[in-house]
Write a structure and sequence with these properties.
Layout lengths: L4 H14 L6 H9 L9 H11 L2 H6 L2 H4 L7 H24 L5 H12 L7 E7 L5 E9 L5 H14 L4 E7 L9 H15 L4 E9 L2 E4 L8 H4 L5
C-alpha cells in the first residue's frame, strides 16, 4: 500500500458518507484528480489549479491548453477535467428536457440555460419550431455573436428553411455579464425579425442566458408591435 492510499480511502469514504456538501472546493478537485492520477498526492496539484484559476468552477471551465500549462497536469488529466464540464452540461440538459412544461417557450429557455453550462465565450443558438411549437432543430450554430445581421440571417435562414420551420427562437449567452440585452442585441434582433418575416417565419423570442438564468427579450417589451413597425436598421 502506498503512503497516500490511506488518505485517498478516507477522502472517498467522506464523499460516500456526506456527498460533496461539506467538502471544500480544493478537496473536491483533489478527489476528482484521483481518477486521472492513480498514484501519488493530488492535494498540491488541486491547490495549484485553484490558485491559478480562482475557483472550482473556473477550473472546470478552463481551456484544455491552459490546463496543460499547470505543472503536473498532463494530457490525460486535462482531458478528464474538460470532460467533467461537458458531463455536467449533458446531465443538466437531459434533466431540463425531461421536466414537464406548461409553457413550451419557457421550457426552451430552461433547456438553453443548461446547454450553456461551462461556455466562457459567446455562442449563438437557433431553435426551429413548427406551427404547434414542436421543436424541429435545437443547436448552437456559431461561436461568437457576429454584429453583421446579413451574415447571421443567411446562415440561420438556411437552417430554418431546411427543416420547414414556421417559427424560430434565438439565444445567446453573456458569459461574464448579466442577462440584459445590449443595444446591438436589440438592433440585431429587430432586424432579423423583419428579415425572417419576409420568409413567412416568425421570430418568437430571443433569449439571453447569464448566471444560470435567462431573459426573454419578447417579455421585456422589445418585440412590441409599435417598435417592430419601424424600418429595418
Amino acid at each position: 500500500m502506498g503512503v497516500h492510499d490511506g488518505h485517498r480511502k478516507r477522502v472517498k469514504e467522506e464523499f460516500l458518507k456526506n456527498d460533496l456538501d461539506h467538502l471544500p472546493p480544493h478537496r473536491v478537485l483533489e478527489l476528482l484528480l484521483f481518477f486521472s492520477i492513480p498514484q501519488g498526492d493530488t492535494n498540491e496539484l488541486a491547490h495549484a489549479l485553484m490558485d491559478r484559476f480562482g475557483s472550482f468552477s473556473a477550473v472546470l471551465e478552463a481551456p484544455y491548453e491552459e490546463l496543460l500549462k499547470i505543472p503536473g497536469v498532463g494530457q490525460h488529466t486535462a482531458c478528464h477535467i474538460s470532460l467533467l464540464r461537458s458531463v455536467a452540461r449533458r446531465y443538466c440538459t437531459e434533466k431540463a428536457e425531461m421536466q414537464p412544461a406548461q409553457d413550451p417557450l419557457d421550457a426552451i429557455g430552461k433547456q438553453m440555460v443548461a446547454r450553456y453550462i461551462g461556455y466562457t465565450e459567446e455562442r449563438l443558438t437557433l431553435v426551429c419550431l413548427d406551427n404547434s411549437l414542436r421543436v424541429l432543430y435545437f443547436d448552437m450554430v456559431k461561436a461568437g455573436v457576429a454584429d453583421m445581421v446579413q451574415l447571421q440571417f443567411r446562415d440561420l435562414a438556411k437552417i430554418a428553411l431546411g427543416c420547414n420551420a414556421t417559427n424560430i427562437i434565438l439565444g445567446h449567452n453573456h458569459p461574464n455579464g448579466v442577462a440584459l440585452p445590449s443595444r446591438a442585441d436589440k438592433e440585431t434582433t429587430i432586424a432579423l425579425f423583419h428579415r425572417f418575416r419576409e420568409l413567412d417565419i416568425d421570430l418568437l423570442d430571443h433569449f439571453i442566458v447569464a448566471g444560470g438564468d435567462y431573459l426573454s427579450m419578447a417579455e421585456s417589451g422589445i418585440f412590441s408591435a409599435a417598435f417592430l413597425t419601424q424600418p429595418v436598421p
